[in-house]
Amino acid sequence: MPAEGTGSDPRRQTTSARWRVLGHPAGMLIFQARCIVEDHGWTATVVEDRHKVVLGRSGAYRKWLNGRTGLADATSITLTRPGDEMAVAHPYGCGDTFTCLEIAPSVLAERPDAARWLERDGWDGSSDASLDLAHRMLVAEFRRGLDGFEATERMHRFLARLFQHSGLATGGADADVERVISRRPATLAAHRRLADRAREVLANSDFTLGLDEVAKEVGASPHHLSRVFQRMTGSSLTAYRNRLRVRAVLDTLAEPEDRPLGSLASEYGFADQAHLTRVVRAQVGHPPARLRRLLAGPETHRR
Question: Where in this chain does the record put each HTH araC/xylS-type domain (predicted)?
């Protein structure tokens, strides 16, 4: 379950907050916070020590970032870098909430679209309706419960969308060049081999490997592997892995041994029994308990 707490926590909030950790996929952290207003004036200036994405959810406050003062509200997005200076004030009262993503430099270094943020630029802007919905859907998925593999891929895919929206990702002519290169026969062949190699690793794993481990096994970064796999197969790595996992679960449900669903969830790398049930139902339209009755052999019915 997501952890909850109150106060100026280890994530170095610029003001006291009630916070809830939603997940911490490899090299990343996602949490939600609701500010607790103790003083309507400006907080002390804090020097950021991490790469952070702050996505507004509700309410409004004043923000001072690197010498510029402005309003932050439910549409605001701020990308900060180590060394950025930040202070906030809450003249409008209590209640503003936000989601925060923290990304390790090692994760950003493997993403070409993050180079500008990693090296020199932050970003202070706003989300459109589509990106805001993607943000809220990401939070909802984490709150429902994700295994580490899916959590990591979902975060990488959201970051790709965020960087493209912010303009920090390489665009324009460079993007056109990349698309041309990606269509070259040699590149396509290499991408097919990479996708096939990932399928091979996943098909022969026990589903406990994380996305970072699969990427390391095939010699690619998680971001690059996820993007290439989607392009070559039309499916995300998570969706493909879920298809494999559900088939393995169905095999097990058909066996005479009536194993607890919680045990199956753990064996096949699901976050918990509820996560197993959601994925199985989404794949085949029935929950595991009903599928066990439908698939059980005659020796099971005699028990």
Answer: 192-294
CATH class of 240-301: mainly alpha
* Residue in the structure block whose two tokens are 């939070």: 139
Q: What is the DSSP letter of 236?
A: -
Q: For the segment 131-141, what is each residue's pLDDT rounded down to a tens digit?
A: 999 999 999 99
pTM, full prediction: 0.83
Task: Write the CA distances from 81 to 114, 119, 121, 282, integer angstroms.
Answer: 12, 9, 8, 39
Strands (E), 36-84: 46-47, 51-58, 61-65, 68-72, 76-80
CB 41 within 8 A of CB 53: no
Sheet arrangement for strand 3-7: 3-7, 17-23, 28-35, 97-103, 51-58, 76-80, 123-126
What fold does the segment set 172-234 form as a domain?
Arc Repressor Mutant, subunit A (1.10.10)
- Nearest-angstrom CA–CA distance, 75 and 72: 8
